[in-house]
Amino acid sequence: MPLSDSITKALAAIVGADALLVDAADCWPYGYDNSRRQSLPAAVAFVTNAAQVQAVVQLAQQQGLPVTARGLGTGTTGATVPERNGIVIAFERMNRILRIDPANRLAVVEPGVINDNLQRVLGEHGFFWPPDPTSAAVCTIGGNLAYNSAGPKAVKYGTPRENTLSLAAVTGSGQLIRTGVLTTKGVVGYDLTRLIIGSEGTLALVTEATLKLTPIADAKQTLRATYRDIHAAADAVAAIMAQPITPRALEFMDAAAIEMVRQFSDLGVSAETGALLMIEVDGPEQCVSSIADTVAAAARNPGLLELSVAREREQIAALWRTRKALSPALRHVAPKKINEDVVVPVSRIAPFIDGLERLAREHRIRIVNFGHAGNGNIHVNLLVNPDDTDEMARAALCLDGVFELVIALGGTLSGEHGVGLEKRDFVAREIDPPALALMRAIKAQFDPNGILNPGKGLPLQADN
Amino acid sequence: MPLSDSITKALAAIVGADALLVDAADCWPYGYDNSRRQSLPAAVAFVTNAAQVQAVVQLAQQQGLPVTARGLGTGTTGATVPERNGIVIAFERMNRILRIDPANRLAVVEPGVINDNLQRVLGEHGFFWPPDPTSAAVCTIGGNLAYNSAGPKAVKYGTPRENTLSLAAVTGSGQLIRTGVLTTKGVVGYDLTRLIIGSEGTLALVTEATLKLTPIADAKQTLRATYRDIHAAADAVAAIMAQPITPRALEFMDAAAIEMVRQFSDLGVSAETGALLMIEVDGPEQCVSSIADTVAAAARNPGLLELSVAREREQIAALWRTRKALSPALRHVAPKKINEDVVVPVSRIAPFIDGLERLAREHRIRIVNFGHAGNGNIHVNLLVNPDDTDEMARAALCLDGVFELVIALGGTLSGEHGVGLEKRDFVAREIDPPALALMRAIKAQFDPNGILNPGKGLPLQADN
To answer: Which PROSITE patterns match (chains A, B) (predicted)?
Structure first.
C-alpha cells in the first residue's frame, strides 16, 4: 500500500526529498537481498545521521509502519527484505569513519561503512577489524553487526561480539541509547552491546559503532594440506586446535567441493584427495616460519597426502586460488544453490560430513561442503535447480535432516548468516521455550509496537 | 525476620536438613563479602544441582522472599550481601568439573568450582581459562561470571564475556534456561549469555557454564621497566599496545605504590623511580625471546630508567615479587582502604593519574594506584581509616571526584569488581536514562517479582 501524502511529506522533511524513494520502480531494488526473496517497501529513506534515524522511527511508530534497516543487501537470509512493506531505512549514505584511535585500539564508524574500506584505512595505521566476511568488498559494518558476521579470521580473532566495544542505537520506541564502554573492560549495567549485535535490526538500529581493533601481525604464511578422506582432515583440525598456536584461518573443502573445482580449474592435487585444509598462520617476522612448522607438524597424520607451505606472497596467492575457485565453480554448476552456514563442535566435523553424505544419497541431492573448520562452521551447499519442483521438495526434506543432524551433534543452525526469514521456522529446535519467551519479552521492551523488522529472527507467533 | 516453620521445612525438603542453615549465628558468615558490609540472611541453602536451585527460587517466588546467590564471598562491592535478608543460595558445594573437552576447547563446570582448581585440572590438558582474578585461589567461576571478573591476562585473552560459550541458569520466575552454543560461532536468537554475565545474580542464577578454553603457550618471559614518571610509563603502554604483539600482562604501579612497597621490602629499583611496568609475554619456545625483545623495544623511551628481562623461572618469580609485595604493604598501611577498579582509555592513563594526584592533595587523602595498564583498568586505593569520620567524609568527596574524572575521560566506573551496593548510586552518571530504563525493563522480564538480589547493580528507584 502506498504511503499517504502526509507521511511522504513528513519523511521528505526528515531526510530531504533527494534522499527519499516512494515510486515502486525506484523502491524495488531496496526490497531484496542475497536470499533472492523480494518484497516492495512503501518508501526508502537514505539517512545520514542519528537524528534522522530517530525521527523516521518515531514517525513509523506513530503510523504503525514497519521499519527495516538495510546496509547493502548482501545478507543471505532475507533479514533485510521488507516482508511487510513499510519503510526501508537505507544506511548506505551514512558511511563515515568518524575516528581512528590507535593508542586505544579503537575506531568509531557509522553503520554504512563498507568493511573493505574500513580495513584499508585501518591498515595504514597497522590495524584491522577481525570480522571479514567473503562479501567484505560490498558489505557494511552495520550488516556485519546485525548478523554477527565473521569469516575465516574468527578462529583466532573472534566475531563482532568479541570485537565491538560500544554502540549508539535507536530503539523501536525511537529512543537513542548508548551501550557499552570505550575500553576493553567494563561491567556497569547489563551488556546491551552484545544483545543488539546479532539481533538483525529487530531490537534497535545501530547509528554508530566503536570497534575494537587488532594490530596486523608482521608476517603470515599459508599451508595447504590434502588428506585421503574427511576423517583424516578432521583429525588434523582437532590436533591443530589442541596445540597452543591458533591459526588465523583454518578452512576446509570436502571431496565434493574438490571434485567440483577440479572440473573448472587445475587444483594441483592428486586424484585420491578426499579433503583439503587451507591453514594460515601469522606472527612476528622472525618466528612465523617456526610457527608454520609447528602447525604443519600438528596437521600431519597417517591420512595426509601432501602438505605445502607457502612463505612468499605469490606462493600464498597461488594456494588460495584453490579455495577462491570454489565459489565461481559452485555458481556455474548451481546458480541458485541453497547455502547453509551451520556449526558443529570441531570434534564432530567428520560424523557431520558422513551424515551429510547419507542425507545426500537418501534425498538424491548433491551436497558440497566447505567452510571455517577451526570454528566448526560448515557451509553446506545443496545444489538444486529452483525450477525443478520435485528436486526442491526433496531438498526441503534434506535440509530438515541437515538441521536435525546439526542439533543432534550439539551444533547451531547459523554461525554467521543469521536467521532472517529463511531459518525462523527452525529456531525453536535450537532454543528452548523459556529462553525463546525471554527473547520475545526483551524484543517487546526495545520495540513495544513491534515495528522493527517484524517477523525476523524469531519464530512467528499466532499474533504476528 | 526468621522464616516460618513451613518455609523452613519446605527448604529442608528441597536441599536436605544438613544443607540448610537457619540459626542467626550459623547464617552470619554467609551475610558478608569483601566489601566489609554485612546483613543477616534468614536462611542459607547449600544447593548441589539445578533442580534444587529451581525449587528454592520457586519457593522464594511464592513467598516473596529475596534470593541472593553466593560463591565464596570474595566480591568487593556487596553484591552477595543479602541486604534485604531472605535466602542465600550458597553454591560452594555445587562444585564439580563436569567435562573437559580439549578437541573442542571447552570445559563444562558447575558455578561453585574454585578458579584455581579449574586451572590446575585444565593445565593437565595444556589449557587454561583466561579470567584469573587476584582471588583465584578462593573465588568461584560463578562469581567470576557474576562480575565479569578478569585479571591481568584480560589484555591479551579477554574477560569472561569473551571466554564463555553457554550457560544454564534459573531465572527469577524459576525457569531453567539454556543460553548460547557449544561452538565459537553462533547467531540464532539474542545473546542471553553475555546479558547474564556481569549481571550480579539479578537476572538469573547460573547452574552450569560451558567455558571456552585457551591453550597454554609454550613459554613466557617477564620484563620489568622503571620510568622517571607516570607520563613516560604511560607513553610506553601506548607504544606497546600500538605494535602487533599483545603482552599477556601489562601491569603498572605509580610512584605512591612504589614508595609504599619500598617501606616494607627491597624493590631493587632506584630512588628516582616514578612509575613501574611489569610486562609478561608468551609464545612458542623458539620465539619467545625475540617476542620479548620486540616488546622491550616498544617499552624504551627517553623516560626509561631501567629495563630487565627475566627469561628463567626464578628470575621471573623475583620480578613478580615487586608486584606481589604491594598488597601486603597496602594492608599494613591501611587495612580498611577503599579499593576502586575504574577504567580509562589507555591513552588517558597519564592525565588520569595527574588528576588523582590533584584530588589527593585537594581532599588530603593518600591515594595509591596500580593495575592492569593494558586495559586502562586502574585500582585506585584511598588509604583511609574508617574510624576517622573527618577523613571518611573527605574520602567520600574525593571518590566523587574520582568517578567524575573517570567519566570525563571516557572511562567506566568498574572494570571487573562490578557495582553491587557500593557503586549503585553512581551508575546513572555512566549510563543514560533510556539505556537504564531498558536495563530495568529487561530485569523485569527475567525476574518479574524482583526477588533476585534486589537493589543490586542498578540505581535504587522510589519503589525499591
So the answer is: FAD_PCMH
